[in-house]
Amino acid sequence: MPRIFSNRNRPLHAGALPTERLPKQRSVDLQAVPTMRALRFEGPKGSIIHAMAEHQAMLDAIRDGATNLAKSEIPAEPVARTDHFKAFATFCDATLVGVCRLGPEDHLANPIQNPEVATLAEALRTRQTKTLAAGIDLIMADLKESVSTPSGDMTHHRFALVFAYAQPRAPRADEAGTDWIKGAERHRSALLGAETATVLANYIRLLGWDARAHTESTSDVDLNRLAVASGIALWDGHALRHPFLPNGLALAAVTTTLELAPDVPLASSTVAAPGQAACDPYARRDFKDGAHPFETLKRVDQPTTYMDEPNIPRVPKRADLFARAQFGDMGPALQKAATGGYYVRKAAPSAAQRRALGAFVLLQDGTPSPVQADLPPQTASELIKATSYFLGVDAVGISRCPEWAWYSHDARGAEIDPPHDQAISMVIDQGYETMEGSSGDDWIAVAQSMRAYLRFSLLGGVVAAQIRALGYSAKAHTVMDGEVLQPPLLLLSGLGEVSRIGEVILNPFLGPRLKSGVVTTDMPLKHDQPIDFGMQSFCEACNKCARECPSGAITAGPKRMFNGYEIWKSDSQKCTTYRVTTPGGAMCGRCMKTCPWNLEGLFRDAAFRKVAMNVPKAAPILAKLDDTLGRGGLNSVKKWWWDLELSEAGSYHPTQHAVNARGLQKDLKIDHNDQTLAVYPAPLAAHPYPYPDPMDREAGIAAYKAMVPAKDHIAAVARGDE
Ligand code: SF4
């Protein structure tokens, strides 16, 4: 349900729900709270719980690790620290966060240990990966060294951050597509809680303090007691509950030596006031349909931008610009900044997210079960969509996966023979609120991307595992290890249209504020159709992203044909160079932040969407109005992160560089004729192998000038000139 009122004045550490209005009491009887019991990832045959089990165990396997011996410089006040970690957890979608002191009585007499952990820890120590992207080898080396040792000494941990994730409603008995997810509500929320706890524990250790994650399946501490002590739950004599979470909750925690400011427990008499319960987007919608009214979109036979399918060349994965930076194709400065994923590690929140991202690489692919389930394509698609939405994916579309959507060679230079012809494309929202506080290219930008990439690695990985369990081949293509080009698959599956930003496909309900992932499979599926919501007219009349792009990489000119696609081709070299080397932040998503389609999700946004979709001539007025209202500017209430940068000593310290903190450049006029842009189509792409292949920018500039409109390309093909 869209909200009526904006929460632009609510800081992230306050959380999404008005819990400050609930009565509190200084002391509660924790003796009355029953000891937690391990959540077993077991369920009936065919349940998604089995596919979740390995991912939960992987998070449990990395819940602990080495603490950075170089201590970072962070605020000394416990309240400031607590607000920061609470905001980080809210950014990770925790429904509630609380803090309490930790004493010996909070430790479990018999710690809970996920039985799968030992297997996963061994896999992390021994398995090799075949990707060479983004410093994955470095992450794997770190993982091999530091997989969890259960129940080591944590007696010096004095504080706990406790997280509650709301459970979704139970599927209705007759609800289509829900056979896999029945009875999995708590497991789903426990899994998301485990992701947050694992990332935050790693974050605190990177900052130089001991910390360990505890989950519903592996814990040294009693999560029930901690939840009551930290004010995020009540024991009502029958169950642990929170007055705003009618469907129940799942827990996770981080214990640490870092001093924090404890919260006050809820008063035992607390009841929910009407209307304050957490909004459930699925209260009146089927899981298979998603949280947004995707069914209202106009469906069309072909994407709204031309694709010359017979002539789309396949390129090697090595042609990706981040890979080119890493292998030195763009010079030594860029290579230094890209090696080992330095541009991700230089900010502590994103450095913390990389560990789980690396670990999930081992679960992306696997051997299918020998027994194949017989599922009609429509049923299979409904099951996959309902499951994906239930788990927390923001948009799902299903399409064919043509051969031309596959890279020609993998990261090591081996030829790819496309194994799958079906694609399940998924979109993860990068989060409106943090983006409000960000310039788009400051010290949180990279963590916004990594948060969404990690969520897909987790949820896409679970869906792929479920498909394999049914006897079909399936692979999750993540930021760490992917073998398909995702934008055309998003177009084919109706998840968006081409936007001026370039390779970013814009979704009408999420705007450009998204990261995608794809699961490919040989399971026969029913396909969605592409959508038409007027984006082409809108972007033709608006060039706000081109105006606001700090690197000048986005074209203010028209669409052209590039590698067989009609797109607004941006200068990826300029974009990558800026993202990897900007001294004032870590990476950049300013185009997403400043776009008029980056909406908060309020009722009033529906009016914008309706006019934008149905009245193409209104686009310039809407774009102008967006500027007039100052949307896309900075909202300091939402800034929760610290501007810390990785030092030579390996600790994180306040950056010495001027932080990117940009307002809108409303008066800047941008003329396409003044832009010098370069592109690298297939003939200029990198060779497939992991050694240098220098880029020729002059050739790239000439290639940009040589690009033609779609109609000229079509005519040339008809004449046999292409
Ligand atoms: Fe299109 Fe304007 Fe958004 Fe750029 S900022 S993607 S031109 S709507």
Description:
It is a single chain. The chain has helices at 48-61, 78-91, 117-126, 136-146, 185-207, 223-229, 321-326, 332-338, 342-345, 348-360, 377-391, 432-437, 445-469, 486-492, 535-541, 544-548, 572-581, 590-594, 603-614, 619-628, 697-706, 710-719; strands at 96-101, 107-112, 159-166, 211-214, 219-221, 234-235, 240-241, 249-256, 395-400, 422-429, 474-477, 497-498, 505-506, 514-521, 560-562, 565-567, 644-646, 652-654. It has 722 residues and is α+β, with helices and mostly antiparallel strands. A 4-stranded antiparallel beta sheet has the order 1-3-8-4, sandwiched between helices. It has a 4-stranded antiparallel beta sheet with strand order 9-10-14-11, sandwiched between helices. The model has no long low-confidence stretch (mean pLDDT 92). It binds iron/sulfur cluster. Iron/sulfur cluster binds at residues 499-501, 506, 512, 538-539, 542-545, 595-597.
- Describe the biggest sheet? 4 strands, antiparallel
Radius of gyration: 25 Å
Task: Name the poorly predicted regions.
Answer: none
| Order of adjacent strands in the largest pleated sheet | 1-3-8-4
Number of helices: 22
Q: Which ligands, by name, code or SMILES, are bound? A: iron/sulfur cluster
What proportion of the residues is helical, as a percent range? 25-40%
Distance between the termini: 50 Å
Shape annotation: globular
The structure class reads: alpha+beta
As a percent range, the share of strand residues is 5-15%
Number of beta-strand segments: 18
